[in-house]
Write a structure and sequence with these properties.
Elements lengths: L1 H29 L8 H9 L8 E6 L4 E7 L5 E8 L21 E6 L3 E2 L7 E3 L5 H5 L8 E3 L8 E2 L2 H16 L4 E7 L5 H6 L6 H17 L5 E4 L2 E4 L5 H23 L4 E5 L7 H8 L18 E6 L13 H8 L6 H7 L9 H21 L14 H6 L2
Parallel strand pairs: 1-9, 7-8
Antiparallel strand pairs: 1-2, 2-3, 4-9, 5-6, 6-7, 10-11, 12-13
Helix pairs in contact: 6-7
Length: 398
């Protein structure tokens, strides 16, 4: 009697242990949306004068495969806290335009509490809010563009489970602190003057100039730009503080001037192409070491990520010829020269005179270098000469 019952008893014990394990594991997995912000991240916040409950703002850069976390400090200014590597994004640089194009969007988006998804099949996720008003104004289609776990993207920002869990926790605590929605800024690359000049011939450059204006306003003031759409373009509401508004306009103006300077100085122009999106080098290295990141979408495409096609080769623009040095002026019209009396009468340029001679020499110093520069750059058309008059006609006119 004891022997037949022994297997049954062991089976009962096994089933009870399995049920106990499931009872523990199920709450643990269901509780993933309640995991705390890591202590190291909280320390970074404290070092910048902010905390877990303060409002957040996220900035994503496709070519760099990074998402930045910004938080508002006690002074009311957003400050950078941490940069997270993107494990996978898909598509090309440029905006998303239609459903199924695998494009990760670019633009200014809003994430409300209702867009957080603790039951995502990709661990944890939140919807960035595509399409926004700008996208709809241009007839863009598609939906459910997420920041989520694992390493597979079909138009989303795939971050791996651990990173997605931390971003979820950071957003959750900001909502608990009273923030009703946070801004998600998505860019093709960091919107520096150098990057804009480098991509100045790209078909998307007009759209990227709009994104740069919003980026510059944020960089200048540390305030979340108030974004709208007017005549099919992004429009940014002026800041209430006139000094901050002036700072935003000044930075944007100086950045545009710098872009023009870089182009004139001969900076290369390129177009960056992808087989299907990219991945941060950090994750590429970890994956090569066997680190688990879940499914990786189109891993073969990552070998052809970020190929640059040079459209305009870099060139070094020659410096303009220098004006005639003072030593040469002195040798020509200095003391002891035949022209010294003329110098004394008209007060030579290096003495600061404002005479006809001074004006003439200043025209030389300013005009000749410009003409030479234009000639060297093939920007100066050759003079048009009239056909010489035949000798017989000249003789006939005497």
């Amino acid at each position: 009697m004891l022997l037949p019952d022994a297997p049954a008893a062991l089976l009962r014990r096994f089933l009870l242990a399995l049920l106990a394990l499931c009872a523990v594991a199920a709450p643990a997995r269901a509780d993933k949306a309640s995991q705390p912000i890591p202590a190291a991240t909280l320390a970074l916040m404290a070092a910048k004068g902010t905390n877990a409950a303060a409002p957040i703002l996220l900035r994503a850069y496709k070519r760099d495969s990074e998402i930045e976390l910004w938080k508002r400090n006690a002074a009311g200014r957003y400050v950078p806290i941490k940069t997270y590597p993107i494990c996978r994004w898909s598509g090309q640089l440029g905006p998303k335009t239609k459903n199924g194009d695998r494009q990760v969007p670019e633009g200014f988006y809003t994430v409300a509490k209702s867009q957080m998804n603790p039951n995502s099949r990709y661990y944890l996720s939140f919807d960035i809010g595509y399409p926004n008003a700008y996208d709809r104004a241009h007839g863009a289609t598609g939906s459910a563009i997420m920041v989520h776990g694992i390493c597979s993207s079909m138009g989303c920002f795939a971050m791996t489970d651990q990173v997605a869990g931390e971003l979820f926790a950071v957003a959750r605590e900001a909502f608990a602190g009273g923030q009703t929605a946070f801004q998600f800024q998505a860019f093709p690359f960091r919107m520096t003057a150098a990057n804009m000049a480098r991509h100045r011939t790209d078909p998307n450059i007009g759209f990227w100039r709009q994104l740069k204006e919003g980026s510059d306003r944020f960089e200048a003031t540390g305030e979340e730009p108030v974004v709208g759409v007017a005549a099919g373009r992004y429009a940014f509401q002026p800041l209430r503080d006139p000094a901050k508004e002036a700072a935003a306009q000044a930075l944007h103006r100086s950045e545009n001037e710098r872009i023009t300077e870089l182009a004139e100085e001969g900076a290369a122009a390129v177009r960056t192409t992808y087989s299907d999106g990219g991945q941060h080098a950090f994750w590429a290295h970890r994956i090569s070491q066997g680190f688990p990141v879940g499914d990786i979408s189109r891993p073969e495409a990552l070998a052809y990520a970020g190929q640059e096609v040079v459209l305009i080769a870099a060139r070094r623009k020659p410096a303009p010829p220098a004006a005639m040095p003072e030593s040469l002026w002195a040798a020509v019209i200095g003391p002891g020269t035949p022209f010294y009396p003329v110098r004394a009468a008209y007060r030579a340029p290096f003495e600061g005179g404002r005479t006809p001679l001074f004006a003439a020499t200043r025209r030389y110093e300013e005009t000749l270098p410009r003409l030479l520069r234009a000639a060297l750059d093939d920007g100066l058309a050759p003079p048009a000469f009239a056909d010489p008059q035949p000798t017989v006609e000249r003789v006939a006119q005497r």
